[in-house]
Amino acid sequence: MNETTRVSTPFFKPSDIVVKTCTIMNITRGGSAFAVCESDEQVFISSKIVEVIGADVGDMLNAYCIDNHRPEIDGEYSARWRAIRASISERLIPLQGVVPAAKPDLTQRCRDIIMKEDRAWTSRQIAEALGEDTQRVSTHLRGEHNAGRVASASICAEGGQDRVSALYFAKSVEVLVELIDGVVIE
User: What's the rounded Cα separation, in Å, for the pair 86 and 5?
Assistant: First the structure.
C-alpha cells in the first residue's frame, strides 16, 4: 500500500469491537496509558480518553477495543488492543486511605495563568508554572486558540519555514500587539 492511500485509523465494524477488562499500569508523560488484561494482553489508551475519564495508574477499566495489530500495513505494535472508548469500573484506593483532591482541568489551569497577566507566554513557561508536560500543555493551548479563547502569535526566523521558531499565547490579540508595539528596534 503506498503512502497516499494509507489510512491511519482503519475502518472497523461494531462487530470488531471487543470489551476488555484491564488495569492501567503506566501513564506516559504525554498522557496516554497502557493497561494489562487478565490474559496479559496490553491495551493502548489515548491521552484524550485518559483525560476524559480521569483515569490513573491502578484503575480498572472496561475498555471497548479494536485490534491494534495490522502487520500487513505497519508491522506489530506492542499493545495488542487499542481502546476507542473506556469507563472506570473500579478505582485504586490510595494506601494512605486519602483520596487526592481532583485537580482542575488542565485546559482551565492553562487559561487561568494566561488570563491573570497582560503578557505573552510560551507553552514551556506555562508547563513549568503548572508542573505539567510541555507537549500536553501545548496541545491544550492550541485547542484554546482554535476555540477563540486565547490569542497566539507565531514567529518565524525565515520565510517558508515548515515550523515556527517561537509561539506565544496571550489573553487577547490586543495584549500581543501592545507587547510587539512596545519593542523598539534599533
Answer: 30
Q: Is 117 left (phi over 0), alpha (psi -120 to 50) or beta?
A: beta
**Mean pLDDT, the chain, integer:** 82
> Which DSSP string do the residues of 80-126 spell out, in sequence order?
SEEEEEEEEEEPPPPTTS-PPPPPPPHHHHHHHHHHTSSS-B-HHHH
Second CATH level (architecture) for the domain 106-181: Orthogonal Bundle (1.10)
pLDDT tens for each residue of 111-141: 899 999 899 999 999 999 998 888 888 888 8
Residue 15 three-state SS:
helix
The CATH class that applies to domain 14-90 reads mainly beta
In which residue ranges of the chain is CATH 1.10.10.10 found? 106-181
> Which stretches within the chain are classed as H helix?
47-53, 106-115, 123-130, 134-146, 173-181
Lookup: cell for 130: 503548572
**Confidence (pTM):** 0.49
* Helices vs strands, H then E, count in the chain: 5, 7
Which grid cell sits at 30? 504525554
- Give φ, ψ of 89 to 5 degrees: -100, -25
